[in-house]
Amino acid sequence: GETMEANRLLIAAGRFHGHIGPFLAVGLKIGLVANEILGRSPLEVRAEVEVNPRPPRSCVIDGIQYVTGCTLGKANIVIHARDDRIAASFSLGGRSVRISLRDEFLKEMESSLQGKPEKAVVDYAFQIMDTPAEQFLEVLQ
């Protein structure tokens, strides 16, 4: 089912990224929503990501790259250093969408992860994959 597919995606992205974490999961979910709205087109789509450029928050970038095909190597993803939010804008063929992580979800996520063992952090990532995107992402078209 859907959960199994989401779990497989997270595991595969974790291999690419080096580990499984909640910010990677958030990036995957952002990318999946973008693909759903604009269609997946790794060569034509452009992404601009607003995020703190250091881990753990920057792990969002790898999730977005993994699922949308926007990559630093193709230069169709640009990172804007922001401390106060996590958001990404995607454009394809004159259409665009902006997807942001709800502030309250980000705060709740960071406070509940503080000092948690690795297993709890990984579990949290799987939980994010299983949560409907509209519960923690805001989409502006």
Question: Overview of this structure, please?
Answer:
The protein has 141 residues and is of the alpha+beta class. It contains 5 helices and 5 strands; from the N terminus they run H-H-E-H-E-E-E-H-H-E. The chain has a 5-stranded mixed beta sheet with strand order 2-1-3-4-5. The N and C termini lie far apart (29 Å). The mean pLDDT is 97.
Could you write a compact summary of the structure shown?
48% of the residues lie in helices and 20% in strands.
Question: What order do the helices and strands come in, and which of them pair?
Answer:
Elements: H1 2-17, H2 22-38, E1 46-51, H3 59-68, E2 77-81, E3 87-92, E4 95-101, H4 103-113, H5 118-130, E5 137-140
Parallel strand pairs: 1-2
Antiparallel strand pairs: 1-3, 3-4, 4-5
Helix pairs in contact: 1-5, 2-3, 2-5
| Major β-sheet profile | 5 strands, mixed
Order of helices and strands: HHEHEEEHHE
- What fraction strand? 15-25%
Helix residue percentage: 40-55%
So how many helices? Answer: 5
| Computed Rg | 14 Å
Question: Stretches where pLDDT falls below 50 for ≥5 residues?
Answer: none
Terminal residue distance? 29 Å
What keyword list fits this structure?
alpha+beta, 20% strand, 48% helix, 5-stranded mixed beta sheet
